[in-house]
Amino acid sequence: MIRMAITRINVGPIHPSTHGVARLVVDVDGDTIVNVEPHVGFLHRGVEKLTETRMYMQAPPYMEKLDYFAPMAYNDAYVAAVEAAMDIQPSEKAKYVRTILLELQRLASHLVSIGTLCNDLGQMFTGFMWAFKDRDIILDLLQEATGSRMFYVNMRLGGLHSELPADFEEHAITTMNYIEKRIGEYESYIEKNTVFMERMKGVGVLSSEDAKALGVTGPVLRASGINYDVRKNSPYYAYSKLYFNPKVMLQGDNFSRYKVRMMEMRESARLVKAAIKAMPDGAATGMPVKLRSPNAVNKVSVVSREVPRGECMMYLVADPQKPYRLSIRSPSMVNLAAISHIAKGARFADLFSIFGTLDVVLGCVDR
C-alpha cells in the first residue's frame, strides 16, 4: 500500500465552522486525520484576575461574557460562589425562579448548538433557521423576566434583581408546550436526512473509559454512557425537589452527543413547567448590590454547576470587599481538548461535525 505524505492544514482561527476564533492545526494522511492540535487564546481577557480588582457584584457582567450563549449560567455560578463564601442562602422562591431561568437558558443554548450543527452539515435553511426562530421565543421569556435578551446580570446575593412579571408563568407554560411539540418536529426532520445521519452515526466515537480519562463533562460525557449530572449528583436550588433523570446515550458518537441535547431540551421544558407549578409564595429578590459583609473574610468556597456545556466550577477565596482569588473550571476548555483524541482516524470532512457536537464556546475556553 502506498502511504501518502502527511499534510498539515490550518483550520481557523477565522472559520465559520469553528464557531469563533479557534485554530485547529490538522495533520492528514490523504483524507484521514492523523492528529488535531487546538490552538486557543485569541479571546483571552483575564477575567479571573479582573474580578480580583472589582467588588463582588461588579463582577457578574464579566462572567456573562464567558459563555455568550448561556450567560446566565455563568452569572449564577459566580453569584452562588459568593453566596457560599458569605453563608447566604437564597429564599425558597428564589431557588425555584433560578431553576426556571437556568433551564430556559439551557434550552436557548442547546437550540444554538443544534442549529449551528445543522448549518455545518448543510441544513441552513431549515434546521438552522428553525432553531434560531425558536430560540428567539425563549429569549422573549428571559427578556420578560430580566429586561434583557442577552446579558442579563439579574442574579443578586440571596435571590434575583426583580420578581417575575405577573403573566410570566402562563406565558412560560404555553411556550414550553410549544417547544415540546417542536422538538418532535426537529427529530422527524433532521434524523431523516441521509447526509446528516451518515456524518453523525458511528463518527467521532468517544468511549466511556476515554471520556472519564479526558475529564469531559455535560452532554459530551453522558453521550458516552456516563450517568453524571451535577443537578442530580449534587442537587442545588429546586433540583432536589423536582423529578428528572439525566439523559444518557451509550454509543459516544456524534449522533449520541446531538441526541443527548435533544432529549435534554425536552426535559428542560418539562422541568420549567414542574418548577412553575411547585413554586412557593414569597419574595425572590436578593440583597442590594452595595452589600458589605465582614463574614466573607478568609473564607473559601467551591461551587459546581451543570451549565449547558458541562460542569462549571468556581473556586473563590473571599475578602471583605472583593474576591482575593477566583479560578474557573471551564467545561468548553476540557471538551475542546478531547478533540485531539476523538478526531484521530476520522475523515477530514468529519472534523466539523465532531467539533460541532462538542458545542464549544471560545469565550468559555479562553476566559
Report on this model:
With 367 residues, this protein is of the alpha+beta class. It has 15 helices and eight strands. Strand 4 and strand 5 form a beta hairpin. Helix 11 packs parallel to helix 14 (351-358). The model has no long low-confidence stretch (mean pLDDT 87).
State the helical fraction.
40-55%
* Shape descriptor: globular
What is the string of SSEs from the N terminus onward? EEEHHHHHEEHHHHHHEEEHHHH
Measured on Cα atoms, how large is the radius of gyration?
21 Å
Helical stretch count?
A: 15
Instruction: Provide the CATH superfamily.
Output: Cytochrome-c3 Hydrogenase, chain B
Distance between the termini: 46 Å
| Mean pLDDT across every amino acid position | 87
What structural class do helix, strand and pairing data support?
alpha+beta
User: What composes the largest sheet?
Assistant: 3 strands, antiparallel
Number of DSSP-assigned strands: 8
Query: Can you list the strand order of the major beta sheet?
Result: 1-2-3
